């Protein structure tokens, strides 16, 4: 009540239009509004958005959408062109523009010829339409229905890329479906729950729960760099399906799906419950959520003082990750594929695996055989198709390839286990709410010489423990029979670059030298990928020359075609220093690591997420010309962030005509709370400054 009252009071103080749910009847207040006071820079504002969800049969849903926009500036006119991406069927689409003409409201209805639909892929359709007669001051209204068949899609995003005056969501969930429901984001939504009824088109009905969510004065959502999945931070409602089934009936009592609150995570992180309330330390809570939550008004409400981010539980049903693990391994679409026989047994027998000395050598040979039969189709999935179809087509998703790989490895007596996860560019896994819905794909965990490593069918240039960054989840679940547990794939592998440069500077400012660079892990992956995606080797080398302002005279790269985690580059080069009268100016690093700061905005709202941990080394041995003295030389620096997760050691030494430089940067963690932003921003500003430091020489008189 306090939150709702404070929002309403804020709306009154800022002189925003009153909420108007009546479509086809824009108010005079809305028509005359020229500035949206909560955000005076807004070119367009959503005055009202409404979504209502009903059922027309037990597994098919009808979404009814209504949207009202106000155009405030010329730059907002682009919103007359509306794009709707949908996996359902779009029906009953109408749109109208309202303008003030001689003091009267004049409406213009969109014609059917303004609407087009285009299929994007097998499941998604893009519907586009243009609202006519839109100018500064126009009110746009449009509404439509979406039909979803054989699906249970409830999630709702309240916040948009433009400010939202009022957002409303109304959904009734039949009692045969059990969901974990939570509100997320930096803005509060008001929720209401009561008994409801779903009525189907055949006249039957089912009891359930009706939920209503309301949001007011939601600011425009602005994406920030170094965020994998920005929608994780939008104000929204998540419905995570726990299970389906008939409700439990207690003798003499009405049907009920919910039971006493139970909270569990895994053997390492567990919250003790007492009388249905969460009892835990802040440290435990921070471990679970990766955010600094503190207890708020109730045991189901969390708030972060540092970020202003809310997380509110609406419903939570009894569940455990052990139940989720069991469902993955049960007979059916997942379990059957995990138990299939090796379809490439005859081909694998030709590999002569018994003659190989290590498990790693065997795994690599098996993987390369499989990849020679099936190439990745650029899609990630959790479920695989029939293996005979995949092998016949010669293409498949990472899941298609991984299921075959598991069968091949098991046939070679190498333990192979599915490791399920959500892709990093999709919604993150919440350990608080056990559900298979969070998982969108899996990689293969292999026991290599008594250690657990990871590999994936999508790999073209990677290796064991060198996964594409999109798969490097910090919450992946190893489905080892009788011993399921969580792993952080961001800690897998070794990602580093080691540069060694030897060069001589002439009095004319010409730098001649050699460089040897060893790329490991993700850096080797990226090098191979860029090389093979280039038009040819010459184009690849020319790109490197352009990026580093050098000319290569010889260039050899080893390991480009090997299935390995290392690439070695050896080259000779020339580079021009700046000569001005009797002075020479040169960046002594020769090849910079970072040329400008990674972060430039003064403040930040979202956490920072890097792609992968790494270390970057540069060693330079530079000979300066006789007859010249050093006038200015970069200072040595030892730079460390407050949390000690980023560091830079930069050492410069001169001995006679020799300049020696050692540069070592370490990035250990990938996720940083927003309250660390200023420290991280200053760190990378200093890193860029060091990378741009100049050596100045002067000719002796």
Which blocks of ≥5 consecutive residues have pLDDT under 50?
1-7, 246-305
**End-to-end CA span:** 82 Å
Secondary-structure class = alpha+beta
Helix count from the secondary structure assignment: 12
Number of domains: 3
The CATH topology of the largest domain turns out to be Jelly Rolls
Largest sheet: 8 strands, mixed
CATH architecture of the largest domain: Sandwich
Q: Indicate the overall shape.
A: globular
Number of strands: 40
Radius of gyration: 30 Å
The CATH class assignment of the largest domain is Mainly Beta
Structure description:
- This protein is an alpha+beta fold.
- The protein has three domains: 29-172 and 190-195 and 207-223, Sandwich (Immunoglobulin-like), CATH 2.60.40; 322-491, C8orf32 fold; 496-699, Jelly Rolls (Sandwich), CATH 2.60.120.
- Helices cover 17% and strands 38% of the residues.
- β18 (301-303) and β19 (310-315) form a beta hairpin.
- α7 (359-373) packs across α9.
- The longest helix has 15 residues, at 359-373.
- The radius of gyration is 30 Å and the shape is globular.
- The N and C termini lie far apart (82 Å).
- 34% of the residues are buried.
- The model is unreliable at 1-7 and 246-305 (pLDDT under 50).
């Amino acid at each position: 009540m306090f939150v709702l009252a404070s929002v309403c009071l804020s709306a009154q103080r800022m002189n925003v239009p009153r909420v108007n749910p009546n479509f086809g009847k824009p108010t005079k207040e809305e028509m005359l509004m020229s500035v949206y006071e909560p955000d005076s820079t807004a070119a367009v504002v959503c005055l009202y958005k409404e979504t209502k969800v009903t059922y027309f049969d037990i597994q098919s849903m009808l979404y009814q959408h209504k949207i009202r926009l106000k155009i405030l500036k010329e730059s907002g006119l682009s919103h007359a062109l509306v794009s709707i991406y949908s996996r359902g069927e779009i029906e009953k689409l109408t749109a109208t523009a309202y303008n003030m003409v001689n003091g009267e409201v004049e409406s213009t209805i969109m014609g059917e010829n303004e609407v087009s639909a285009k299929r994007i892929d097998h499941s998604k359709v893009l519907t586009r339409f243009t609202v006519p007669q839109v100018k500064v001051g126009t009110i746009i209204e449009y509404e439509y229905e979406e039909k979803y068949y054989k699906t249970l899609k409830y999630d709702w995003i309240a916040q948009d890329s433009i400010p939202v005056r009022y957002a409303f969501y109304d959904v009734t969930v039949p009692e045969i479906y059990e969901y974990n429901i939570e509100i997320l984001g930096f803005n509060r939504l008001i929720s209401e729950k009561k008994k409801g009824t779903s009525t189907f088109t055949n006249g039957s009905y089912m009891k359930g729960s009706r939920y209503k969510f309301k949001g007011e004065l939601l600011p425009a959502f602005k994406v920030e760099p170094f965020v994998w999945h920005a929608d994780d931070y939008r104000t929204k409602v998540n419905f995570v399906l726990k299970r389906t089934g008939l409700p439990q009936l207690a003798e003499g009592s009405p049907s009920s799906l919910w039971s006493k609150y139970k909270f569990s995570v895994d053997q390492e992180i567990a919250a003790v419950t007492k009388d249905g309330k969460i009892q835990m330390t802040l440290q435990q809570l921070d471990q679970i959520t990766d955010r600094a939550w503190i207890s708020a008004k109730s045991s189901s409400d969390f708030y972060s003082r540092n970020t202003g981010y809310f997380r509110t539980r609406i419903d939570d049903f009894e569940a455990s990750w052990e139940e989720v693990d069991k469902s993955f391994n049960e007979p059916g679409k997942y379990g059957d594929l995990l138990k299939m026989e090796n379809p490439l047994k005859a081909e694998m027998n030709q590999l002569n695996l018994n003659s190989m000395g290590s498990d790693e050598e065997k795994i690599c040979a098996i993987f390369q055989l499989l990849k020679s039969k099936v190439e990745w189709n650029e899609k990630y999935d959790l479920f695989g198709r029939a293996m005979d179809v995949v092998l016949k087509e010669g293409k498949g998703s990472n899941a298609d390839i991984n299921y075959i790989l598991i069968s091949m490895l098991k046939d070679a007596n190498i333990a192979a286990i599915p490791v399920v996860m959500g892709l990093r560019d999709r919604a993150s896994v919440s350990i608080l709410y056990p559900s298979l819905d969070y998982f969108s794909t899996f990689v293969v965990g292999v026991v290599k010489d008594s250690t657990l490593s990871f590999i994936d069918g999508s790999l073209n240039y990677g290796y064991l423990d060198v996964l594409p960054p999109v798969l490097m989840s910090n919450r992946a679940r190893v489905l080892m029979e009788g011993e399921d547990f969580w792993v952080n794939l961001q800690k897998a592998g070794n990602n580093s670059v080691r540069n060694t440069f030897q060069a001589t500077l002439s009095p004319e400012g010409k730098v001649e030298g050699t460089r040897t660079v060893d790329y490991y892990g993700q850096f080797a992956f990226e090098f191979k990928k860029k090389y093979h995606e280039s038009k040819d080797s010459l184009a690849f080398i020319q790109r490197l020359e352009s990026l580093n302002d050098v000319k290569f005279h010889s260039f050899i790269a080893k390991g480009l075609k090997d299935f390995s985690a290392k690439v070695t580059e050896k080259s000779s080069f020339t580079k021009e220093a700046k000569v001005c009268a009797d002075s020479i100016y040169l960046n002594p690093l020769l090849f910079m690591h970072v040329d400008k700061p990674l972060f430039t905005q003064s403040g930040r709202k979202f956490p920072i997420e890097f792609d992968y941990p790494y270390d970057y080394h540069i060693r330079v041995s530079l000979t300066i010309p006789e007859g010249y003295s050093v006038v200015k030389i970069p200072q040595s620096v030892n730079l460390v962030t407050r949390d000690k997760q980023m560091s830079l050691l930069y050492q410069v030494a001169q001995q006679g005509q020799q300049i020696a430089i050692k540069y070592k940067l370490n990035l250990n963690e990938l996720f940083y709370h927003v309250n660390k932003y200023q420290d991280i921003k200053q760190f990378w500003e200093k890193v860029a400054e060091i990378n741009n430091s100049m050596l100045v020489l002067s000719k002796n008189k």
